[in-house]
Write a structure and sequence with these properties.
Blueprint: E1 10-16, E2 23-27, E3 31-37, E4 40-45, E5 48-52, E6 58-64, E7 69-71, H1 74-79, E8 85-90, E9 94-100, E10 103-108, E11 111-116, E12 122-128, H2 138-141, E13 149-154, E14 158-164, E15 167-172, E16 175-180, E17 186-192, E18 197-199, H3 202-207, E19 213-218, E20 222-228, E21 231-236, E22 239-244, E23 250-256, E24 277-282, E25 286-292, E26 295-300, E27 303-308, E28 314-320, E29 324-334, E30 340-351, H4 354-360, H5 364-381, H6 385-390, H7 392-408, E31 412-423, H8 426-467, H9 470-485, E32 490-493, E33 503-506
Antiparallel strand pairs: 1-6, 2-5, 3-4, 3-6, 7-11, 8-11, 9-10, 9-12, 13-16, 14-15, 14-17, 18-22, 19-22, 20-21, 20-23, 24-27, 25-26, 25-28, 29-30, 30-31, 32-33
Helix pairs in contact: 5-7
């Protein structure tokens, strides 16, 4: 800075020439003046009227001290009376807010300053920008340019964690905060205290105020159910956590996951991730086979079961214990008398041993299907068509007996085998129909002849009785006449005896 212009607030400069032409200078109470003679600083003027004269040219610089400061100048500083001003030096990482009589007036950047102490109480409030958080009143912050200061708002339901270069350095309570903009990587992490927890770290544990959180450690083989005011809210896996205690009572209960079946309360199962815990419902008509890493673990009866499956392969096989059935349609079988049939079968069965049934076959129904096919070929194929048609019940019983032995080794009970349909080839069906027709015709003829013989015997017996009794003979004649008379319109009868008159009948 030029020695003739040591301050930024010069108000007036007046120059006069020689000693016989004095220079009158009025310095107001809010001003001071520097006197230069021949270009050199020679004096300092306080408030009042001053007459200056000399043999050399005189130059006077007036400046205001009302703002309370000016830039530092060695020549100026050398002229200021002791106690009239203070020197202020702000380092590169410092700024200052200047107050005059308690009122903030000026923002000062790093540099050298003179603070006037004659007219008012001038005080500098120095801040270190390396502290990151600008702990200053809002009226101070309004004077700081934005390139120096960031404004951050933490809401009531939030807390803030201030990070510098990846390290947590400050905990921010709700309210407005000011952060120094510098060469560091600065960010604010907003934490919602309405949630139950946050991830823990050594930095956070040191920053958070006492009583704001409680630590929670969940080990590798553990799960934690977090409760808020006694109600389950979430599930936490292994790790270090901090439970908020600011807005509600938050606590946790830890459960061991090494056991396959969980001890976590059923009302909390929905909170556990599906890849950690599966829920299986076994109905009254079912049995559940629990396998862990491919090995059978337990038999599950009716109910709901929570199964830990983290770090293990868990499978639950549901076995239906009710009576079941399936059909075999169009099975072709040749009888011993060389007749090819198609049969439709219905098989009813029930699982008795769930574990044995599951481990004996991967496809139990398919295995039973094959066995029934083979049994049908053996039992039906070993009989003649006639016996098959006449005695289905015996064939069914034989098939059930044969299948039962095989199925018992699979944990299955064969309840029933029905021959639903026996389908003959077209020509065989016609032939069989003709045979049946002939048999039925022969049976009818026998019955007819039997009835005719019986009728003849009855007539012969009647004739013997009537031949010995004339009255009966006459009654028979009258009966015959009555039957005949019922079928004709005119009838004349000449009996040929004197006892009976001549009869004439007209219808």
């Amino acid at each position: 800075m030029n020695s003739k212009n040591p301050t930024p607030n010069i108000t007036h400069t007046s120059t006069k020439g020689w000693f016989n032409d004095p220079l009158d200078i009025l310095v107001s109470p809010t001003q001071r003046a520097l006197v230069y003679r021949g270009g050199e600083l020679v004096g300092w003027l306080t408030p009042g009227n001053h007459k200056l004269k000399g043999r050399e040219q005189i130059e006077v610089s007036l400046f205001s001290i009302e703002d309370g400061w000016c830039l530092y100048n060695p020549e100026l500083w050398s002229q200021i009376p002791e106690g009239s001003a203070e020197r202020l030096t702000l380092k590169p990482n410092q700024i200052a807010i200047l107050t005059v009589d308690g009122q903030p007036t000026t923002f000062l950047e790093p540099g050298h300053y003179i603070l006037w102490q004659q007219r008012a109480d001038v005080r500098p409030w120095v801040y270190d920008t390396e502290d990151i958080v600008a702990d200053m009143p809002e009226v101070f912050a309004k004077l700081v340019p934005r390139q120096y200061l960031q404004r951050v708002q933490v809401h009531h339901e939030q807390r803030g964690i201030l990070w510098r270069d990846g390290v947590a350095i400050a905990f921010l309570e709700p309210g407005r905060h000011y952060l120094w903009s510098n060469q560091h990587d600065i960010r604010v992490e907003y934490l919602d205290v309405e949630t139950t927890h946050i991830k823990s770290s050594p930095e956070l544990r040191e920053l958070l105020p006492e009583g704001a959180t409680e630590p929670l450690e969940v080990q590798v083989d553990e799960l934690a159910i977090v409760y808020k005011n006694g109600r389950p809210k979430c599930c936490l896996g292994p790790g270090s956590f901090l439970l908020w205690q600011l807005r509600a009572r938050v606590d946790a209960k830890i459960y061991d996951t090494t056991a396959v079946q969980t001890t976590i309360p059923e009302n909390c199962w929905d909170l556990v991730p599906g890849d950690w815990l599966t829920v299986h419902t076994i109905h009254p008509y079912e049995r559940g086979l629990l396998y862990v890493d491919g090995k059978f673990q337990d038999l599950l009866t009716e109910g709901r079961f929570g199964i830990h499956q983290r770090h293990r392969d868990v499978q639950v096989v549901h076995m239906d214990m009710r009576e079941q059935e399936f059909q075999i349609s169009g099975q072709e079988v040749m009888t011993t008398d060389k007749v090819t049939l198609r049969v439709n079968l219905i098989i009813k069965y029930r699982v008795r041993d769930a574990l044995l049934a599951n481990e004996s076959h991967t496809d139990l129904t398919g295995a039973l299907y094959t066995e029934v096919q083979m049994a049908a070929r053996r039992q039906i194929g070993g009989a003649k068509l006639e016996s098959l048609l006449e005695d289905r019940q015996r064939i069914r019983e034989q098939m059930v007996e044969e299948l039962a032995v095989r199925a018992r080794g699979w944990g299955v009970e064969i309840m029933q085998v029905d021959l639903k349909d026996i389908i003959l080839p077209g020509e065989m069906k016609d032939l069989l129909n003709r045979v049946i027709e002939a048999e039925k015709q022969a049976e009818a003829n026998v019955i007819l002849r039997r009835e005719e013989a019986a009728a003849n015997r009855a007539q012969a017996n009647a004739a013997k009785v009537m031949s010995s009794n004339s009255t009966l003979m006459r009654l028979k004649e009258l009966e015959v006449l009555r039957e005949v008379a019922g079928n004709i319109s005119n009838l004349t009868v000449n009996v040929g005896t004197d006892e009976l008159p001549f009869l004439t009948h007209e219808r």
